[in-house]
Amino acid sequence: MLRNNKLGEHGFTLLEVMFCICLLSTLLLVTPRLQPLFFGLPKQESFNEFEWIIFMQQAQMEYREAGTVQFIDKKLMMKDPSGFLVTYTLAGTQLIRKVNGSGNEILLQNVKTVFYKQSANKLVIHIQDLDGNIHKGILTRLSVLEEA
């Protein structure tokens, strides 16, 4: 691979350098994809408080925009004035969000039970995680303030 020039200089050819860079790039590109094979995927075995906070913020926005709210079994259905139907469904241990019956966005993981209770301008959500801890969130509407 090393060549001797007439002047006595040693070095790699451009082709050899390009081949080494290509091989190194391919190796670096493939390495992150192989990580789960060697180390496994991280598993979340407990309820994540950060997911709960994000869920409550998203649910708050959708509840405020909803024209009608209904409960059927463990399914919360909110329909906004433009006709979009947003449903929150407990499937196994995951709380899933669907819009107009399509999509499958996982909102919360490691959920054992979910319970909804609605009063005048608020919706109370009770969630029990797999460890038995109960998380309670309250969603409010601003319609009383808007009418004044």
TrEMBL record:
InterPro entries tied to this protein: ComGF (IPR016977), N_methyl_site (IPR012902)
Keywords: Competence, Membrane, Transmembrane, Transmembrane helix
GTP-binding is among the record's keywords: no
One Pfam match: ComGF
Superkingdom of the organism of origin: Bacteria
Predominant location: other
Subcellular location: Cell surface
Membrane-spanning residues: 12-30
Protein name, entry field: Competence type IV pilus minor pilin ComGF
Native source species: Ectobacillus funiculus
